């Protein structure tokens, strides 16, 4: 097995052990175990499919907006979404570090905008 693959596996293990991933996974289990939260998530997923198939239909978009508001009012879903955002930020930082290592000239340009 190549050195790169072994390191990628170690990175994957570190990600799975991260506070961000563990927090998201726990919040997802709590959310999934709540019947009301699970129903809301299923409705949103079904509605998203309708929106994807009928991109011009404003009725579905308004319904999605209303459902999303209801989701944010559900503490279990809200907790999961917040944990998911934290995990996404971590993954974004990981990807950025890898990109900077591969293209160091991009990292100098990136620092100028901070």
Automatic annotation (TrEMBL):
Xref: InterPro entries: Com_YlbF, YheA/YmcA-like_dom_sf
Coiled coil regions in record: 30-57
Domain of life: Bacteria
Residues of the signal peptide: none
Alphabetical UniProt keywords: Coiled coil
Gene3D superfamilies tied to this protein: YheA/YmcA-like
Protein name, as recorded: Cell fate (Sporulation/competence/biofilm development) regulator YlbF (YheA/YmcA/DUF963 family)
Native source organism of the sequence: Halanaerobium congolense
